[in-house]
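We close this part of the discussion by returning to an individual protein. Part of our work consisted of pairing the sequence of a single chain with a tokenised description of its backbone. No coordinates are needed to read the tokens, only the vocabulary itself. The amino acid sequence and the backbone structure tokens for this protein are reproduced below:
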Amino acid sequence: MTTKGHSESIAPAIFRLFKVAHTIKKSLIAMSSDNEDQSQQAQAKKNHNKYRRDKPWDNADIDHWKIDAWDGEKDSLPGGSLMEESSFATLFPKYRERYLREVWPVVTRALDKVKIGCELNLIEGSMTVMTTRKTSDPYIILKARDLIKLLARSIPVAQALKILNDEVNCDIIKIGGLVRNKDRFVKRRQRLIGPDGATLKALELLTSCYILVQGNTVSVMGTHKGIKQARQVILDCMKNIHPVYNIKRMMIMKELAKDPKLAEEDWSRFLPTFKKKNVQRRKPRQVQMEAEKAKAAAADGDAPSGAAAKKNKKKTYTPFPPAQQPSRVDMQLDSGEYFLNERARKAKKLAEKRERSQAKSRERRDAREREFEAPPPSISKKSKNKDETSGDSNKGGADQLDVEKLKSKFSKVGKRKSSDKADVSDFMAGGSTSKKQRRT
């Protein structure tokens, strides 16, 4: 009974296992069929150009990025000419008027070759370019617009006329509003130029562009790639990043571009990374001297004085605001000046001014008179010591004078004066002998 019941319980489990295996087999067959269908579809996609013929431009020797120059004879517009006239105008500064008047014939001849009209208005101070009926190139008017912009920004006419070529582009970068402080702006602009224009020249060589710094703008002429690099360096310079760092980075990138092995690799490991450092500025001399005085006073144990004492002294906190200071009208009301008329007020001011000037003149006069006053008699140390030593002996008769000492003193002075008397013969040719005779 037990074996029979056990076999009956195992049979359903075996049936379920066979059923699961059957479903797995079905799913595997479906997946394999799907993969075959996908591979067949992929092969069908690959062969969609099976009957496609080769075109003339399917050639590796052709540069598809090359911009061909506009040929007026071969190339023409669909309608034969432009439907409407297009014109652009720009103003120029007063100091450019003389130069533009001299070079305008050269500009006119250059624009006539590309069938563009131009006009110089000296009254309004403007330059205008416009298309004509003969204009065939639709883009040349934009080149002419860039030409007059460059001429207005002080670029020489020989350099500005290169903008008419298709491979030359330009960009005028405004740097005037990037720095608020004028002195700081002038320093950063000079940093971009460098000593004797060395920094600007290095930037021109690396970007293959012509760069001119004039006033609040920087004019750049060159290729699109070079203009983009130059613009980044100029904006970084105005953001207080020295152009030398960017120039060094560009030099390394130029050397790496020469190696074909590194064309597909990342160059970040070769390029330098410059971190911004917060360098403490030097304190003013007056602040340094005050700090030294405070340190010396602290070392001596004295109380600090001056600005250091004010700085160290802590103010007591009071929740009430300070008392309001009297206004000018309040002070006039207190002094009674407010009720005076204009004439009396002026007379009072004049009298006060006269009193102040008189007081100053008296002070100056007293100072001048003080210069002619005799200094007080100075008592020497020796005489002071003698007086101290002889003080005890002369206590009784300080007012009495020694007559004998005075007589001997005056007799000595008289003898000295008589011996010092000079004769006229002393100052004559034979006067030296008479002196000897007198001594003998």
Remarks:
- Residues 73-166 form a domain with the Ribosomal Protein S8; Chain: A, domain 1 fold (CATH 3.30.1370.10).
- The first helix runs from residue 2 to 46.
